[in-house]
Amino acid sequence: MSEPYPTIFAITKDALDLDELVNRITLPTSGAACLFTGMVRGVTRRGDPHDTLYLEYEAYKPMAEEKMLQVADEIRERWPLVEGIAIVQRIGRLDPGTPTVLIACTAAHRDTGVFEAARYGIDRLKEIVPVWKKEVSPQGETWVEGDYHPNPGDIQTESPPGSPPGSPPA
Amino acid sequence: MTEIKVLFFATLRDRAGLREAQLELPEKTAVKELKLLLAERFPGISESLPTVLVAVNREFAFDADLVPDGAEVALFPPVSGGS
């Protein structure tokens, strides 16, 4: 029996080491990685143009980590050729230019769905992983709220017996 | 009676004025009733009620769900977006 594919999920106060995280999900069989990272934008031009001094992130850590694992499980259901998955959110005070979140997926080849999988990962994180940010600008502080309201379909379902999350297909 | 712990995050914490509270509830209280009870006790959160998200024992819960004894309930706004 082969080792389960690596799944990394974490809320952390530490700096994100993008290289190290990608290394940890790179297997001997991996030949492609798709990585999305979001960073604090100091100057916003779209919509309501403004400057940002820093963002303050907070999370409901135990639930957030469970929901990250759920996102990883959903990715594996949809893109079974994905090998490693890393989903990491940094919290605390983060200055412009600092990476705040990383979603990375690895696979044998790039035509396996890795691009779509990483895209799905970040979009889904913004729906169901309880993390919030407060924006501090020269004008003051504002909480940034999204508009997604989870429904009963967003509840974690049990994996069928014999297929633990993160296992390669038989 | 049922004893629960309630956690507030982000705007809900600011409006409630605290991070955490212990609460006694009648048996078989549903999430919808719990929200109203909390708004009575912490009037600051009333304006958040239409959009607040509720988790019970670290999973999303909905108006008709019952709150079990010893539950850890969390109230928070929708997850921060970005595009």
Protein described:
- The complex is a heterodimer of chains A (170) and B (83).
- Chain A is α+β, with helices and mostly antiparallel strands.
- Chain A has a single domain (7-41, 50-145), classed as Alpha-Beta Complex (Aldehyde Oxidoreductase, domain 3).
- Helices cover 24% and strands 34% of the residues of chain A.
- In chain A, strands 1-6-8-2 form a four-stranded mixed beta sheet, sandwiched between helices. In chain A, strands 7-5-9-10 form a four-stranded antiparallel beta sheet, with no helix packed on it.
- In chain A, a hairpin with a 2-residue loop joins strand 9 (131-137) and strand 10.
- In chain A, helix 2 packs antiparallel against helix 3 (114-128).
- The longest helix of chain A is centred in the middle third of the chain and has 18 residues, at 61-78.
- The radius of gyration of chain B is 12 Å and the shape is globular.
- In chain B, strands 2-1-5-3-4 form a five-stranded mixed beta sheet.
- Chain B has one domain (2-76): Ubiquitin-like (UB roll).
- Helices cover 20% and strands 30% of the residues of chain B.
- The interface between A and B is medium-sized, with 29 and 20 residues.
